[in-house]
Fold:
Amino acid sequence: MAAPAMPFRTKAAPLDDGADLAEVLVIKLGALGDVVQALGPLAAIRDHHAKARITLLTTEPYAEFLAASGLVDDVWLDGKPKAWNLLRLMHLRAGLRSRPFGRVYDLQTSDRSSSYFRLFASPKPQWSGIAKGCSHPHDNPKRDLMHTLERQGQQLLYAGIVYTPKPSLDWAEADLSRFDLPAPYVLLVPGGAPHRPEKRWPGERYGALAGFLAARGLTPVVLGTAAEAQAAAEIAEACPTARDLTGQTSLLEIAVLARGAAGAVGNDTGPMHIAAVAGCPCLTLYSRASDPKLCGQRGPRARVLRVDDLADLQATTVMGMLEEMGVNS
Structure:
């Protein structure tokens, strides 16, 4: 993604772009969709700091996935200590101070990650983010109204990185032979955040869609965590030929599954970001509860279907859109 030609600035662009620094830290803690959309910025940072040792601070669910990208040299785990847990905070502070980081890219830009700025000794490292007093602030007051990709591209521009590519999963590799899936297949992703049921299309509608797909010679393959067991059971009841892989796939395996899929349909949840970036023809279902203009899936063959209430969305409508996208046999 090319950076905006005339970005908002409240102060002059920094003269020091940090390209010659030896040690760089990147912070990206989650969630899955945000991690996938950070792959472009990570590639830009890797290219800009070609000679640097780049350390990534992330959380356990994403460590293996991001390490496999080859975009960073080291992966550190953040236990996200509570403010009252002084022992764990001291351990985190010691870790952050154990390397002579010349620059930190805070791609999380949360209250938590911004607070880590204060854990560094003075003089502070250069810092790209929104922490108060940092050297390279992304101080656009409209930053929260930007899509994640444009926002992070502009953040890096303010730090002297003029080009941020689109996220890519071309590097992802995994052996899928244990699944023994018949081709062609279509991925179904019925999950989502447990505390956001309004972002989920009903399981029985996924079941009806699975039946439509099977009638067209496509094998429905259900992805998700163990929490999606009920939805997977509803799909299996409606379509006995559907394959249930819930709780069985790694993030890398999801990427490779998506690369080989005839299509994917799912709620606004992390695996659909993977499917979109992998180049799969994918259709993500949105309700009024979330806005794809801010965090929607981006990819060469990604589309969005948004309605006020997903309970009103019929399987025939979704199948019709899939057919328009060429996902029909």
Observations:
- The chain has two domains: 23-158, 177-324.
